[in-house]
């Protein structure tokens, strides 16, 4: 059990979000709601707008119109660090940590939550030492939760690719988020690593009660883990529902099989 179990996260609501890049509409009035403690997947073929959607949620891209709210808070125009401070943490598709030990990387993640100043820490004042110890203990718990416990003191570059990618996930968890945005968490992994990471994601939701938004190309993983799925294609929502509902949706099948109508512009 963990002592950080908190009340349910607030509802994350994306309403009518539109993003344009020059002439291209990357997201076109996209809306979805992430229920507290649920796992919501955003899927779609290449170029559908999934990363753009994540960039809006994490404050890296400002939409031309529409809003993103977490409970009562409007996140739409906040800087990324403010959004993170409100409890929305993300991982990145292509970042795989290579420096330091697992512990070093997780402590970097804890740094944002540290109250003791740099000088107090450097001078090893008692309060700062106590705080540091508590952060280290929590980092160790997070390592256990993400399957990295045995590697806590290992240099990251000696770990397998799958473990290294989970270091990024564990570092995001060190922010103690209420909402976790996972951008292709199993990309590039082999089958065993994918299964391991899927199990970790399931555990996170069960044990921490987090809301999770998942962008992932691995449909098996999405269908196994998601409570709800939003399907994008060319920036538009083409389907929304439970995994079973979307997997049978003719528009989804068309988008994935590339046999779309002229209007959908499939090649
Ligand atoms: N900074 C940008 N400037 C111009 N166009 C962009 C920019 N970012 C994304 N796009 C375009 O917006 C559209 C949506 O891209 P996005 O990366 O969000 O799709 P995606 O669903 O994440 O794709 P993938 O599965 O390949 O990662 C694409 O046509 C892409 O080329």
TrEMBL record:
Record's keyword annotation contains ATP-binding: yes
Keyword Acyltransferase on entry: no
Keywords in alphabetical order: ATP-binding, Nucleotide-binding, Transport
Entry superkingdom: Bacteria
One term of GO molecular function: ATP binding
Pfam families referenced in this protein's UniProt entry, alphabetically: ABC_tran, BCA_ABC_TP_C
SUPFAM superfamilies: P-loop containing nucleoside triphosphate hydrolases
Positions of the ABC transporter domain: 12-259
PANTHER family the record matches: ABC TRANSPORTER ATP-BINDING PROTEIN, CONSERVED COMPONENT OF ABC TRANSPORTER FOR NATURAL AMINO ACIDS-RELATED
Protein name: ABC transporter ATP-binding protein
Organism expressing this protein natively: Streptomyces composti
Upper classification of the organism: Bacteria, Bacillati, Actinomycetota, Actinomycetes, Kitasatosporales
């Amino acid at each position: 059990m963990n002592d950080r179990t908190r009340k349910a996260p607030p509802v994350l609501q994306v309403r009518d979000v539109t993003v344009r890049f020059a002439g291209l509409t990357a997201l076109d009035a996209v809306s979805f709601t992430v229920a507290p403690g649920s796992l919501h997947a955003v899927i779609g073929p290449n170029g559908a707008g999934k990363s753009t959607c994540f960039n809006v949620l994490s404050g890296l891209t400002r939409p031309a119109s529409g809003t993103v709210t977490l409970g009562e808070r409007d996140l739409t125009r906040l800087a990324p660090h403010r959004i993170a401070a409100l409890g929305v943490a993300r991982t990145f598709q292509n970042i795989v940590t290579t420096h330091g030990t697992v512990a070093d990387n997780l402590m970097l993640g804890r740094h944002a939550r540290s109250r003791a100043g740099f000088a107090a820490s450097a001078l090893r004042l008692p309060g700062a030492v106590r705080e540091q110890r508590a952060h280290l203990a929590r980092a160790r718990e997070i390592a256990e939760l993400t399957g990295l416990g045995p590697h806590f003191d290992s240099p990251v570059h000696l770990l397998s690719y799958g473990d290294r990618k989970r270091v990024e996930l564990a570092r995001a968890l060190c922010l103690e988020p209420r909402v976790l945005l996972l951008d292709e968490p199993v990309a590039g992994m082999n089958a065993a690593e994918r299964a391991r990471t899927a199990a970790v994601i399931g555990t996170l939701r069960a044990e921490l009660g987090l809301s999770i938004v998942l962008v992932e190309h691995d449909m098996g993983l999405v269908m196994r883990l998601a409570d709800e799925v939003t399907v994008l294609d060319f920036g538009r929502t083409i389907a929304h529902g439970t995994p079973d509902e979307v997997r049978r949706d003719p528009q989804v099948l068309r988008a994935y099989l590339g046999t779309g109508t002229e209007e959908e512009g499939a090649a």
